[in-house]
Amino acid sequence: MHGVAFRQADNSAKHCPFSITPTTLSRKMYRHLRQVTPLLAKLIHRVSEDHDFLQTRLSKMAKAEPFFGRLLALHQQAHGALGQRQALARKPLLLLRTDYMDDRKLGAKVIEFNGIAAGMAPFGQRATELHHYIKRQWPSVYQQWAENPHASPADNQGLIHMAAGIAQAANRIQSHFDPNAEQAPTFLMVVQENEDNVYDQHLLEDALQQLGIRTVRRTFEQLSKELYSGEQQRLLLAGVGTIDVVYLRAGYQYQDYYSPHREEQVCCQALSQTRLFIEQHYVAVNATFSQQLATSKTMQMLLTKLPVTDFARWGLTVTEANLVKSVLADMQPVSAATIDWFNRVADHSQWVLKNQGEGGGHCVFGDAISHTLSQLKEQEYDAWALMQRLQPRTRTTPAIAVRDNQASEVSHLVSEIGLFTVFFEGQPMTELDGYAGYLIRSKPAAENEGGIHSGQGILDSLVLVD
Prior knowledge:
By secondary structure, the protein is α+β, with helices and mostly antiparallel strands. The chain has 2 domains: 5-329 and 390-465, no CATH class; 330-389, Dna Ligase, domain 1. It contains 15 helices and 25 strands. It has helices at 27-48, 51-57, 59-64, 66-79, 121-137, 139-145, 158-177, 198-210, 220-226, 269-279, 289-294, 297-305, 318-325, 336-344, 368-375, and strands at residues 5-7, 13-15, 18-19, 23-26, 91-103, 107-114, 152-153, 186-190, 214-218, 227-229, 235-237, 241-242, 245-248, 284-286, 331-333, 351-354, 363-365, 385-388, 399-403, 406-410, 413-424, 427-428, 435-444, 458-460, 462-465. Strands 5, 6, 8, 9, 13, 14, 21, 22, 23 and 24 form a 10-stranded mixed beta sheet that branches. It has a 4-stranded antiparallel beta sheet with strand order 15-18-16-17. The longest helix has 22 residues, at 27-48. The model has no long low-confidence stretch (mean pLDDT 93). Its EC number is 6.3.2.3.
């Protein structure tokens, strides 16, 4: 009824799995995350605009990982080579979701940065609203299944803040060209063909429309034929007109740039050039090539290993750098020496092996890590990283999960906490220093994959305890 669903192959809708009562987090930890997450967003923005740093520090990973090799080549094509930098017209709009787990001993640590297609703020807000509704409508059921019936709900206006931030960026771009424009600013969402996550996207589009923003949807294939340039590097779309914001919900995998109708010597070159064409115009863009590179697993590892004094490069004080470091878990590059250490010394249960992939299904756990490492060729090492495995606090009481219209009791749930931030040209777009709400996904502790799409995750919300 409220649009919290996935589209099915037959064009029917299926509700997202959800819990009927929220998970708890200490108020102290919540405040810490609220403080550090906007700081991380500021850091990611500044790293993403440090083109020399991206090119030099990610070159080895790009040689090992073909998709990121293509991204880095497009980045160089856009910004020029080292010492020959050129300014692009595009204006960076950073819609970032930083995902954490609250480790039982170490506290909350970053799992990953999601800088492209960072969706589900609408679903996060709807989950919070659902739990408020259950508490009001069925108080005895809520009391029975709540982990702590007296905990305070953490406010979550993710959909509202995300839409408001995007709308501000759209209005600023339009005002640059015509301060007295009478037509609505236009928001372009780049989507995958046959997208199943259309409901989360439509909730955002509807919120933008209520703020006076016109919304359109296109695939890269469609855009390759419909985009063109106007005066003063204005981006135009055939049949629509001027474009003020481009939001990529596609573009994080080769498949998004592949067209079966094209014969290409270099895979996916034509449609990736469409993305480059967008960045060559005066338009707000999320995600830019730079933002996608800056939120890669390899960059996360590099930032984890930097000494605090090095963060001054991006304008962070030592105090701010220590705050950032407080939420970064240990990561190790893959090398012959690391593999030898891992096989001889390391506790395999305490590590996760990750590649550069976005979404679920890209992690290797436990004893399977040694097998995967043994299969890697040396030239593939830099595409992977070892990350300290987090052991999150489990929910102390059983919970009720609803999946496929069936309720079941689930014990030992653990939760992944995603905090959203909205920055435009490095400036926060909300009154909360850029913070824009959260997404909670819970899963049984024994399950490795906790995604709502690709795993045993369920939508959840957050309440706070002292």
